[in-house]
Amino acid sequence: MSRVPGSWPPVEIEPPVLHPNAPAPGTDLGVHFAECFGCGEVEGGLHLRSSVGDDQTVQSKFTVTRAHQGAPGLAHGGLLACAFDEALGSAVGNLLRRPAVTGRLETDFRRPVPVGSTLYIEARLDGTAGRKIYVSADGRLDAPDGPVAVSARGLFVQVGIEHFSTHGDPQALEKLAEAQRKNQINP
Ligand SMILES: CCCCCCCCCC(=O)SCCNC(=O)CCNC(=O)[C@H](O)C(C)(C)COP(=O)(O)OP(=O)(O)OC[C@H]1O[C@@H](n2cnc3c(N)ncnc32)[C@H](O)[C@@H]1OP(=O)(O)O
Fold this sequence. Notes:
Elements lengths: L48 E4 L4 E7 L13 H20 L3 E10 L8 E12 L2 E10 L6 E11 L3 H6 L2 H14 L4
Antiparallel strand pairs: 1-2, 2-4, 3-6, 4-5, 5-6
Bound molecules: decanoyl-CoA (MFK).
The site of decanoyl-CoA (MFK) has 17 residues, from helix 1, strand 3 and strand 6.
């Protein structure tokens, strides 16, 4: 359920088709990039942890610390949006294994998220339309069946791998690709 007006996805979509090498339900997805603010070992980062769920979902967990505050004792909304960007991106990257970036991210903040609470995020693939990949997620407080505190929906746009080398850090990208080849993760 969303408070954002308009139907979702906003265009006619194809059902998502999982990559043949997509990890099976239950697989721990680990860290996709050690310096990622969402899932890496970054000081003050979100340290979000994800695994594959059933029915084309990724389940993620993120514990709010004092480093994530906006108002005293409460999570900053922008950091919560970051957690959803990561969780949605993880669903796209791991289940479809198509290189993609966030084009649009909408968030509904429905309950305050206190420091010390853990957000249980379920991200699901909604559908694709050419290069456009539609995903959505709910984040529940302190338990997988807790009350929904934040909902999000996003459009990811498939890009060529040159997007990352042209606009990012090609050397770091090559190092990451090498590590992934060794671990046999991602194409
Ligand atoms: C295992 C991996 C785990 C990864 C987890 C990490 C998750 C974190 C993900 C991120 O945060 S990525 C970083 C934040 N995003 C960016 O930096 C993207 C910056 N934007 C761009 O680079 C370009 O705008 C973009 C690649 C998204 C699109 O540019 P393009 O020139 O390639 O495509 P174009 O603008 O023609 O858009 C393609 C389609 O998407 C649509 N589109 C793009 N942006 C849109 C938007 N904002 N709203 C609605 N539709 C949008 C656009 O209308 C069009 O629709 P049609 O095909 O129907 O014509």
